[in-house]
Write a structure and sequence with these properties.
The chain is an alpha+beta fold. It has a domain at 2-63 and 77-84 and 159-295: Beta-lactamase (3-Layer(aba) Sandwich), CATH 3.40.710.10. The chain has helices at 2-34, 68-81, 105-109, 118-127, 131-141, 144-153, 165-168, 182-193, 200-211, 275-295; strands at 40-47, 53-56, 62-63, 90-93, 114-117, 159-160, 179-180, 230-236, 248-255, 261-269. The strands form 3 sheets. The chain has a 5-stranded antiparallel sheet with strand order 2-1-10-9-8, sandwiched between helices. It has a 3-stranded antiparallel sheet with strand order 3-7-6. Strands 4-5 form a two-stranded antiparallel sheet. Helix 2 (68-81) packs across helix 5, helix 2 packs antiparallel against helix 9 and helix 4 (118-127) crosses helix 5. The longest helix has 33 residues, at 2-34. The two termini are 26 Å apart.
């Protein structure tokens, strides 16, 4: 009996040692990637089912750019759940709303204005990252304060949403008013996916339009097997006169072939690398996480 217990303990020790070795190998690979480029990387990766986490600069603040459209959508859908807004309600988009020099598929498709349902506006804002649609949703909510207060009241205090898209376009520093830590980003992703923030119906609606995201094909999804289901949101800044790119970001949830999932938040900031290099950083890290969670010992 004692021999059996000792042998079982030895097997458990070997198992734990193997798992720890796998995780340490992943950390080393991530560190190698993070230190290989002229950029500041913030990374947080979580196994949703097993709560296994890997972090690099997880508590550091990073500018979100359009990543915050995911958070705005959560607050809009919270209002839908409370019966104060409705997915089929109409939102008028006047010609005066269609400001130039900003990313807007709505403006390109409807240069003279249009009327969209709230559901359609959310799809443009999340799936196509429409800046005009984003600010119209913020107007509907009463401004960024509503979004910021929602998350702080839920206990997510390592997030700041204070500027609209139009405000961020006015000058370089304003974009840094909207920030999040990679750790907090994953906490919110996991709570969303676990239906802790929204009703089942609203969670399903947002998950669907996240999986339909058209931007960032070379980021989290870049090296994953074709057909992998990924619900995600991107964020990108411009590059200033000094050649510095403030943000190339991607956050999301990846579905594995074994039925499990991992959430991932990668923020590339203060980079002097080309866009292609910044996006490949995210794709490399995502692929490492894929291999780790798919092949780790249960």
């Amino acid at each position: 009996m004692i021999k059996t217990i000792i042998f079982s303990g030895f097997l458990l020790f070997l198992y734990n040692s193997s798992v720890m070795a796998q995780k340490e190998d992943l950390r080393k690979e991530i560190l190698k990637i993070a230190n290989s480029k002229r950029a500041d990387l913030g990374i947080y990766i979580s196994g949703i089912e097993d709560q296994d986490t890997i972090s690099f600069n997880g508590e550091k603040q990073y500018p979100m750019q359009s990543v915050f459209k995911f958070h705005i959508a959560i607050v809009v859908l919270n209002e839908v759940d409370k019966g104060r807004l409705f997915l089929d309600q109409k939102i008028h988009v006047g010609k005066e709303d269609l400001i130039p020099n900003t990313w807007s598929p709505i403006r390109e498709e409807y240069p003279h204005g249009t009327t969209l349902t709230l559901a359609e506006m959310l799809k443009y804002t999340v799936s196509k990252s429409d800046n005009i649609g984003c600010d119209l949703l913020l107007d509907l909510l009463g401004g960024t304060k509503t979004v910021n207060d929602y998350f702080h009241e839920k206990g997510y205090t390592n997030i700041s949403i204070l500027a609209t898209e139009a405000e961020m376009h006015k000058d370089w520093p304003t974009q840094f008013l909207n920030w999040i830590t990679p750790n907090e980003s994953n906490k919110i992703l996991n709570a969303f996916y676990g239906e802790e923030l929204l009703s089942k119906q609203s969670t399903g609606f947002l998950w669907k339009i996240m999986t339909e995201t058209a931007t960032g094909k070379k980021r989290i999804k870049g090296q994953l097997p074709e057909g992998t289901v990924v619900g995600h949101k991107t964020g990108s800044s411009g590059t200033n006169e000094k050649g510095i790119t403030a943000a190339v970001n991607n956050i999301g949830i990846v579905s594995l072939p074994n039925g499990k999932h991992f959430s991932i938040s990668v923020f590339v900031s203060n980079s002097t690398e080309k866009l292609e290099t910044n996006e490949k950083l995210i794709a490399d890290i995502s692929m490492l996480a894929w291999d780790y969670f798919l092949n780790k010992k249960d």
